[in-house]
């Protein structure tokens, strides 16, 4: 089995720290990346707060979310949501799961997260809500089995972001940078939308506007990453 | 009289600093822990802002909230709420009292704090509100007597969290880590719930969902604590 | 003319820094203290952001708000509000003027700031609103003359806090520590009240509850000050 | 071609860092200043997060937003909004474009940003909203052509601040300090107004009050700048 590129592992560690620094995750939540040498594997930290992750904590999982090798540590109980999404979404290179507070209201009410500005144009294709009761009945809310992971991946379908009722949200992207960008601007969008909705009718981006910006957005992905990375370095 | 374990005293000091760092307490509020060698005693700081507590400030109290020994300093005037809860709740190992702003609205209106996500499943058994006027009539709002402490403990009954009208909240747990976790996620839940309630009807965790997560939650208590402890160390 | 005690000047400087650190003032706003040797004089910084004040910036003013000596620098244009309050309120030892955002809504709407918890019991005697148009007609909103200062002092009457429409707020106290405490907990109260009012009817402290806590509050004034002072020292 | 004064370049760099530190811009947004030797040129950073800008990144553009010299780097795609405003507004010396979250609700609803206190008296002449669809139909929302820049400048007319639907805001001033001041207090005003509007009818500054303060405001522009500059230096 080929080892992942050192740069990819490093980018995953930086992403963990950025997500914590930007308040997308607290002690809970996780980010994974598809293995650059083997599309049937992915990399993710062992069970640990993202802000504390180092190179020694990165583990390789197959798409059944079994670790190779098993380093004898505890793993995130919800790793199945990562594996099951990678199985059905060959376009996805990185998956983030979080409980960021501004997103939660959109999973427990009928309000829909919608793109309020160009920065969150990736929301323009829709944001479904996963109701775990549909598949699992009464549960402890966690995606702790391949079956629940599969149900989540099905509900996500071809979208970029999904709300999880009474739990949090999951976002995917074609790169670590894109997934982190989507997590950060989903939260930003949620904060703005919560305020805007109280002022009366809101004009969201038209689907065509969102689509046009999305085509362009890849061009500016490096600019915020450079800043977010500089910010975590300042703290060390 | 046996001395408490050094580890327990240290954990109590760390908890004081975490509660301040996480904005659960400001200069006011306090945390206690039951003595590990004597269930009829508890440990708590003398009258001091939690963020400034050191080992020299930890005092042992009996369940009448009398210090042993009296170190000749001033003590928290509301220590009776700790003593009276320990008397009637043998399962409780740690008690926190705070005035965290997001919790206050739930004590002065008819709105009920309810579990909006798995992280605050401990709210699923209900959150009573203590109205000091019922027992004390017109007071200065403080739990400054054993009688008022007893009335609060009675209202708390077998719950984990209680709101105090025009004052703050009190939370209990089977360990320092659990009590701190409950304080932090009560506040998080309050912030999310305040936003969600404005969007229309809210789906809270079903009692069964809350119960299922609560059974599991002990397994993840060490993860946030490691992060919170790292955060206070960074600041020193 | 006797010099003020060094301790008083130092406390005034610390208060300036605390007010900035606690976000009560930004570059604007000011705090003064009555001269300890001459009740007809008061001390305040020259025209400067409170967060930058040092001992060299403290100036002595008479109650007409004329500097003695004039150090040849610019002074706060609104110093008259300080002088005029000291004239008619012999009980007042310190005056703070600020534009803290959470207070502003209570000066431009019919909503009244009311004590939502014991920490802000000092609001229990009422919070009047100063409408500058009543005395000054169309102005630039500033209290730039003795006449406007006098009108503000009259509206304040025997209260502790006053809102100023389209401008900010002013609070007074029997010591620097008390005035700073009132500024900080007025803002805290405003934040909590803004949230609580959206949940339906709010139970505020009864006048008697507020009065009972106010009698007691002097006993706990040193505790938050010790923390706030420690926090500004950490930053240096 | 004459070089710009070193002091001006330095002030522009400081302004970039202040705007980031005060959360007016994140990785996106930009500030420009008219060339002090040539009114038909302006200075702005190359494509970079404002918080990371250094002297080497400052580029000179003509009013067609063509760089002189072209340093072979990427430039902000929206630089045309700067050039087109300088063309028609000889009074404008500095232009800021940002996506500050509190401003966004005022661009996507019928709510109008209005001066809630003297600090934002510059809003008193009105805040128009730019609807890009009027000129551009379905776009990616960006001001990426001289035509769109011209349309924005026309909508801005003689005002100080303009909202951009689904995008952000732009503010102008007679100096860098004034433009930065307007950006910061536009955001502050938005935050306060969002809260005040929920409490019922709001009394905004009368046009005459706003005008009277605006005449005076130049006198206090140096005070906040000194503080903001001190704050960014502390972080280094």
Please provide a written account of the structure:
The structure is a homotetramer. In chain A, helix 1 (about 5-20) packs parallel to helix 6. The longest helix of chain A is centred in the C-terminal third of the chain and has 21 residues, at about 175-195. The first copy, chain A, has about 240 residues and is of the alpha+beta class. The model of chain A has no long low-confidence stretch (mean pLDDT about 95). Chain A has eight helices and seven strands. The interface of B and C includes residues 104 and 110 of B.
List the main descriptive attributes of the protein structure presented here.
homotetramer; 236 residues; alpha+beta; seven-stranded mixed β-sheet; 8 helices; 7 strands
Uncertain runs of chain A:
none
For the largest interface, the chains and their residue counts are:
A-B, 31 and 34 residues
Anisotropy-based shape of chain A? globular
End-to-end Cα distance of chain A: 34 Å
Secondary structure category of chain A: alpha+beta
How many beta-strand segments of chain A?
7
Helices of chain A, by number, come to: 8
Helix content estimate of chain A? 25-40%
The SSE string of chain A, one letter per element, is HEEEHEHEHHEEHHH
Largest sheet of chain A: 7 strands, mixed
Global mean pLDDT of chain A? 97
Strand portion of chain A, in percent?
Answer: 5-15%
- Major beta sheet, strand line-up of chain A: 3-2-1-4-7-6-5
């Amino acid at each position: 089995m080929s080892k992942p590129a050192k740069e990819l592992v490093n980018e995953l560690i930086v992403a963990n720290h950025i997500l914590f620094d930007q308040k997308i995750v607290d002690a809970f939540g996780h980010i994974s990346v598809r293995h650059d040498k083997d599309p049937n594997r992915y990399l993710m930290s062992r069970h640990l707060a993202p802000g504390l992750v180092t190179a020694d904590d990165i583990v390789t999982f197959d798409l059944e979310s079994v670790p190779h090798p098993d380093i004898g540590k505890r793993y995130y109980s919800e790793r199945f949501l990562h594996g099951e999404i990678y199985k059905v979404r060959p376009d996805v290179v990185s998956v983030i799961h979080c409980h960021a507070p501004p997103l939660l209201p959109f999973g427990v009410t009928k309000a829909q997260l919608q793109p309020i500005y160009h920065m969150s144009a990736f929301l323009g294709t829709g944001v479904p809500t996963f109701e775990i009761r549909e598949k699992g009945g009464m549960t402890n809310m966690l995606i702790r089995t391949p079956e629940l992971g599969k149900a989540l991946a099905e509900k996500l379908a071809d979208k970029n972001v999904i709300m999880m009722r009474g739990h949090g949200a999951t976002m995917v992207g074609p790169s670590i940078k894109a997934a982190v960008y989507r997590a950060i601007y989903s939260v930003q969008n949620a904060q703005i939308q919560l305020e805007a909705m109280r002022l009366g009718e809101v004009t969201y981006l038209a689907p065509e506007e969102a689509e046009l910006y999305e085509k362009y957005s890849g061009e500016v992905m490096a600019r915020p990453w450079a800043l977010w990375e500089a910010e975590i370095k300042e703290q060390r």
